[in-house]
Sequence to fold (284 residues):
Amino acid sequence: MKTTQQSYRERLDRVTAFLHANLETDIGIDALSEVACLSSYHWHRIYTAMTGETVANTLRRLRLQRAADRLANSDMEISMIASLAQYGSQDAFSRAFRDMYGKAPAAYRQGGSHAAFKAANADADAAGFKVVIEHHDAVRCISVPHSGPYLQIDAAMGQLFGTLAQAELLGPNTQMQAVFYDDPDLVATDDLRSAACSPCADDLELPEGTQELLRPAGAYAKLEYTGPYADMKDAYRWLYGVWLPNSGYEISERPGFESYLNSPVDTKPEDLRSDIYLPVETQS
Fold:
């Protein structure tokens, strides 16, 4: 028999999936209440208590994150980006974006954190950013798989976070990570494979709804990254296209991963800290 907490967890997962699938539509509290099968009054209180932010803040954060990705990685008109983010005017979008990202949309497109990596890519500057080589032992992880755009792994991350909390496995030293299996420049966006994960004990019985993920031992090139998740694409292009050919290392068949050192729920995008791990082998 399911506990009340399990029932609420499943409802929250359904709502989270619905939010990510419908960010570019007008989502009302009543629609979310129907997905959760609870009254709007009770559901909103439960959602806020379990996630640490209101539904409105979640929608705003995710929509602006997707907008930041489009600003950094596409030539889409800002007016269209604003419309897809469900803002009635470009001015309203600009105010909201500046409040969260510290720059107006046009200024962010030209000078966000991605700009430094774009310049290093254009100049083939292999020494532009510090990279260190680390050896990692094999690690067993609890994971939730994700298919589709890497930037939308938030849904799997939210499910994993909630599951860890429900199982009383969430503590101050819990590591939130993501493993990526495909090259987004070679594989269609909808076919990209990844997983939200967290290292766990070898004898842990995995909670329902999660999977075991074994991250193999080996060497990794670590790049310490600070800034919005939307800007990471150019950091990866620099690692693969500029640093790697000049490093004396070869890419490994092992998947790469990211480790997140703070949370987008309570951290400004410009202050988000992540470690990017590129799997490498010594050249033969």
